[in-house]
């Protein structure tokens, strides 16, 4: 029988290892731990106990880390005195949730009701978490008579530590995220201010340069004077004004990051293609794409992404453009943190030297000579949009051999399928 | 024919000058008056009961009282209810256009990049809104 328990504990530990590897929220951890414990049968019962709120979490820490050590193995037999441990731990908390995995119910218990819990229980506080909000207490119970072996208790500790560690990671991750999002909000506000300045205050002097130049041009014209230089001033000011507008549009690609709308990438590509219908017909372009997947995202931004790619392909092709868009789904096994849809976009454009690839996505960077007009913004927009969707984009190109963009966009993944 | 009064409220010296030049090219039969702030304009409007311009142009971005507030205040004066008030601004933000329309602005003109553009806009506007001749007709 002892072997059987040990075997199950090992099994649980392995299952937990797997189940918790990708958990990234507190609730997810609870859910998965419960799921693992549910699968374990009959004579070995597990109760997961979670504190109710952050306040309680700090208080549960009273039963400090030494509790493990404090329980002598011989005391881990099934005697009444062990209820003293949960009582001690509970003495400083008002409420606990007990998850009874055997009967599949969650119940809230108070200090008094500790006494009514089955006596055959061992209490493991997960960790001393005096500052962290994550904390849980795992209670192991067994209906067996006789003592648990030291190895078995060792496994229980490992299991408890595993869950604790996972909770702690998630907690610090949440904190990091919170910090990051606060910093992000501040940066967004600054960006918004810059955007306003660029669209108004910086445009203002340029407008005046152009209008007054215009007045000069008019009088030069009336008096038959040369106006070449005045025209150049006007062109330069107009160019500057256009650059500013580009910065404003770039900054206006709103950063949501929390997309709820399901967007069908096939229809996105269809829409983007439709926008260039005339151009496609004129250049005899051939565009092929398979049925793409759906992702959560911003439809307008994603359409702009493909529009910019198409615009580039159509502009930088000297022969009839051949464009193909395909996709595949990645799996975690490839070492990615999430599941992604990998969209491969290829064309037969004039291409560029691969060593310039890094510059391709920067604002105002042009990898081609001036006669191929472009504002140097297209790929910068693409990168920003993809990054807004928590994805990434890279490019491979060879002169006269075309260009390939690889766009990775996260897709929702179901942990149960792992 | 009675000389009409065109009144511009704009804190920017250059813009007032450009506006005047453009207006002069469009028509020489209009009297051009300016105020450098909403406060100045409102003092003038409220202090002289017999003074009512035929057209009012307001710059959107001004210190102290901005264009929107100025517009709202002007529309509170009874005799200004039917006077066309035009917003005149660099910003073409839809929000600004919607807001000022709700406050009773007749039109929204963006500050242009060339004299020709401004002249054309003024010309179009004056031919569309001709309140006194309508009243007489």
UniProtKB/TrEMBL annotation, chain A:
One of its GO terms (molecular function) is phosphorelay sensor kinase activity. Its EC number is 2.7.13.3. Keywords: Kinase, Phosphoprotein, Transferase. It comes from the Bacteria. It catalyses: ATP + protein L-histidine = ADP + protein N-phospho-L-histidine. It holds the Pfam family HATPase_c. Residues 197-413 form the Histidine kinase domain. InterPro entries: HATPase_C_sf (IPR036890), HATPase_dom (IPR003594), His_kinase_dom (IPR005467), HisK_dim/P_dom (IPR003661), HisK_dim/P_sf (IPR036097), Sensor_kinase/Photoreceptor (IPR052162), Sig_transdc_His_kin-like_C (IPR004358). It is an enzyme of class 2 (transferase). The keyword Kinase applies. PROSITE patterns: HIS_KIN (PS50109). This is histidine kinase. It comes from Chryseosolibacter histidini.
From TrEMBL, chain B:
Keywords: Phosphoprotein. InterPro entries: CheY-like_superfamily, Sig_transdc_resp-reg_receiver, TCS_response_regulator. The modification 4-aspartylphosphate is found at residue 59. It holds the Pfam family Response_reg. One of its GO terms (biological process) is phosphorelay signal transduction system. It comes from Chryseosolibacter histidini. Residues 5-126 form the Response regulatory domain. SUPFAM superfamilies: CheY-like. This is Response regulator. It comes from the Bacteria.
């Amino acid at each position: 029988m002892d072997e059987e328990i040990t075997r199950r504990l090992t099994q649980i530990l392995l299952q937990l290892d797997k189940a918790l590897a990708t958990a990234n929220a507190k609730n997810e951890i609870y859910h998965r731990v419960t799921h693992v414990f549910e699968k374990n049968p009959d004579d070995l019962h597990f109760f997961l106990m979670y504190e109710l709120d952050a306040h309680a979490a700090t208080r549960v820490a009273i039963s400090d880390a030494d509790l493990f050590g404090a329980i002598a193995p011989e005391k881990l037999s099934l005697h009444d005195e062990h209820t003293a441990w949960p009582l001690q731990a509970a003495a400083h908390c008002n409420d606990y949730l007990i998850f009874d995995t055997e009967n599949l119910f969650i119940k809230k218990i108070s200090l008094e009701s500790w006494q009514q819990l089955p006596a055959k229980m061992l209490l493991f506080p997960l960790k001393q978490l005096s500052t962290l909000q994550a904390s849980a207490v795992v209670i192991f119970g067994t209906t067996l008579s006789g003592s648990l072996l030291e190895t078995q208790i060792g496994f229980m500790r490992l299991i408890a530590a595993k869950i604790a560690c996972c909770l702690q990671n998630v907690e610090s991750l949440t904190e990091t995220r919170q910090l990051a999002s606060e910093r992000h909000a501040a940066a967004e506000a600054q960006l918004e201010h810059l955007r306003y300045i660029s669209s108004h205050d910086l445009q203002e002097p340029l407008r005046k340069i152009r209008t007054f130049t215009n007045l000069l041009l008019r009088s030069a014209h009336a008096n038959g004077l040369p106006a070449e230089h005045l025209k150049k001033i006007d062109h330069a000011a107009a160019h500057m004004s256009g650059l500013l507008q580009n910065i404003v549009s770039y900054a206006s690609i709103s950063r949501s990051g929390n997309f709820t709308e399901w967007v069908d990438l096939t229809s996105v590509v269809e829409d983007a293609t439709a926008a260039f219908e005339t151009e496609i017909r004129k250049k005899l372009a051939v565009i092929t794409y398979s049925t793409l997947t759906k992702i959560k995202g911003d439809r307008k931004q994603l359409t702009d992404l493909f529009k910019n790619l198409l615009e580039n392909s159509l502009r930088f092709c000297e022969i009839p453009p051949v464009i193909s868009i395909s996709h595949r789904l990645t799996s975690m096994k490839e070492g990615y943190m999430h599941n992604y849809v990998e969209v491969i976009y290829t064309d037969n454009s004039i291409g560029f030297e691969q060593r310039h690839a890094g510059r391709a996505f920067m604002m105002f960077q042009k990898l081609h000579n001036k006669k191929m007009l472009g504002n140097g913004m297209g790929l910068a927009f693409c990168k920003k949009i993809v990054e807004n969707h928590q994805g990434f984009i890279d490019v491979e190109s060879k002169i006269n051999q075309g260009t390939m963009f690889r766009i990775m966009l996260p897709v929702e993944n179901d942990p149960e399928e792992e | 024919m009675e000389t009409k009064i065109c009144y511009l409220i704009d804190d920017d010296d250059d813009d007032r000058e450009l506006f005047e030049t453009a207006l002069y090219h469009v028509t020489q039969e209009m009297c051009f008056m300016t105020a450098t702030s909403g406060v100045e304009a409102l003092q003038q409007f409220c202090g002289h009961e017999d003074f009512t311009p035929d057209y009012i142009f307001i710059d959107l971005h001004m210190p102290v009282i901005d264009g929107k507030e100025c517009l709202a205040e002007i529309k509170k004066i009874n005799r200004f209810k039917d006077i066309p008030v035009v917003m005149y601004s660099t910003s073409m933000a839809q929000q600004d256009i919607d807001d000022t329309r709700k406050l009773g602005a007749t039109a929204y003109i963006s500050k242009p990049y060339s004299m020709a553009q401004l002249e054309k806009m003024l010309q179009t506007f004056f031919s569309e809104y001709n309140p006194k001749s309508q009243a007489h007709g």
